[in-house]
Amino acid sequence: MNSSNNRSSYLELPDFESLKTVHIVGVCGTLMGSFAAFLRRRGIRVTGSDQNVYPPMSDVLKAAGVELLNGYSETHLTHTGSKPDLVVIGNVIGKANPEAHAALTGGYVYSSLPEAMEKLLLQKTLNLVVAGTHGKTTTSSLLAHTLVQCGKNPNYFIGGVSHDLPFSFHLSSQEAGTPFVLEGDEYDTAFWDKVPKFNHYLPDHAILTSVEFDHADIYPDFQAVVRAFEGLLDRIRKNGRLIACFDYDSVKKLIHNVRGDIRVISYGSSEKTGARYFPKKISMAPDMTHFEIYDSDLEKSVAEVSMRISGVHNILNALSVWIECHELGIPVDQISGALKSFQGVKRRQEVRGEVQGVLVIDDFAHHPTAVRETLKALRAKYPDRRLVAVFEPRSATSRRKVFQNEYAAAFQGASVVHIAAPYDQSKIDSSDQFSSDQLVRDICKKGQMGFLMKDVESGVESIARDAKSGDLVAVLSNGGFGGFIPKLLEMLRKK
C-alpha cells in the first residue's frame, strides 16, 4: 500500500498536554472508542460522531463522558461552540464523509489515530509492538497484563477487551523508557494515508506472531502483505529486538533482511521449527494448560508455565510474551505467576453461557488458520463434548473466495458444522464472492455433517433443536452475527 499523498499533518499537532477539546469522526469503533475514553480520563473534552451510535459502545462512551452525535455533519465539528484543538478521523471514514471533508478543507488540525499517537505519545517511550496476521490482540493483552502484574506500570493500546485490564487504552507515563504495549495492526491508517497502522508506532521491540495472506480488500496479493511487514521490521529503532515465530516460513524469510543492529530471538511450537525457544511436555485440561519452555541455546528447560487459555496458538502467544519479559529482566517466577493469572480476552474462546448442559463459546476466528487452531484448542480443552461449529463469513477476506478451498479443511476439528450465508457481498464482484453453499458441500464430502444456514433465526432454531446436553457450540464470527449467541441461549432456555 502506498500513501495517497505526502501530507505530514501530524507535525502540526499541538503538544498532548495542551489539548483541551478533541472531536473524533467514527468514534464507535473499538480502538477509537478506547482512545476517546482515554482522553476523557485525562480531562479533555471529547465529542464524537458515528453512523451507528448504539449499545454497547454508546453506553461505554456515554459513561466515560464522551458527547455522542448521531450521523455525520460538518456542524458536529463546532458542537462545543468553537473549533476543536484536534479532529481525529477513523480509518473506516471515506473522503466523501461530510465531517472529514470539512476537517480537511476547513482549516482544522486533523489526524488519524496512529498519526496522533506517533506525534503525541510515542516519541520517548519504549514501544513494544505486537504484530502478525494472528494472535495480536491476545498477545498484546497478555504482555500488558504480565507487565502490570510484575509492577512495570506500562502504557498499552489494545484492539480488544481484556478480562484482566480495566481499559483497552492506558497511559501511565510519557517518561523515556516507559514500556508502551501496542497492538500493531497491518490494516491501513486512513484514506489519505494508505499504509499499515503499525508504520506509525515507532517500535523499539517487536513480536511477530505470523505472516499470512489476509485483508483481501486492501492487499492485492501475499507479496503485498509481506512488504507491509518488511516495513515494520525496517522501522524497529536502533539496537532494537525482534521476537519471531518460526512456525511460519514467511517469518523466517523476513528476518534475513533485518538490520544488523536488531537482535532476533526465535520461538516455535517444536524443535523442528529450528527456533531457539519452544514448548515441551504440553498438557491441556479444561481448567489449565501446562508446558515447559526449552532454550535450545542452553540445551535445557528454563521455565514452567501454567495458564488458563488453551491451544497451541496460545502457547505460542504466551511463549513470545515470556521471552520479551525475560529479556526485560523480569524474574522467571514473576512472569510465570502473571501468565497463570491471565483470564483471556473477550471473544477469544469466551464462554457466553451454559444452558441445559449446552456450552456456548464465542470466538473471533475468521481466517482459516484461526478457525483450525481455535477448533483444535476447543477439542483439546473439552475432549468429551461434541463440538458444533457455527461460522459466519463476515471479514473482507472470508467474504471472498481466496480461501474457498482452505476452509473445508479448517473445520475438520468439529463434529457438526453450520455455515451462514456471507455478510453483505454487494460490493464484491460476483466472480470473487465466497460461496457458503460450496463450503457445505466440501465439508460433507469429507464425511462431516455440514448445514447451510439461510438466516440467523432458522439457524438458531435448528441448532437449539438438535443440541444435546454435553454439546459445545462454538460460534465463530468477527462481527455481531445478528445477535446469534443471545438468541441461541434464549432458545435453549425455552427448550
In the sheet with the most strands, the strands line up as: 8-7-9-6-12-13-14
The CATH architecture term of the largest domain is 3-Layer(aba) Sandwich
How far apart, in Å, are the first and last alpha carbons?
Answer: 51 Å
In helices, the fraction of residues equals: 25-40%
Question: At the third CATH level, what is the topology name of the largest domain?
Answer: UDP-N-acetylmuramoyl-L-alanine:D-glutamate ligase
**In terms of per-residue confidence, which ranges show pLDDT below 50 for 5 or more consecutive residues?**
2-11
Number of domains: 3
Largest sheet: 7 strands, mixed
Number of strands: 23
What is the alpha-carbon Rg in Å?
23 Å
Shape: globular
For the record, what is the CATH homologous superfamily label of the largest domain? Answer: Mur-like, catalytic domain
Number of helices: 14
The fraction of residues assigned to DSSP E strands is 15-25%
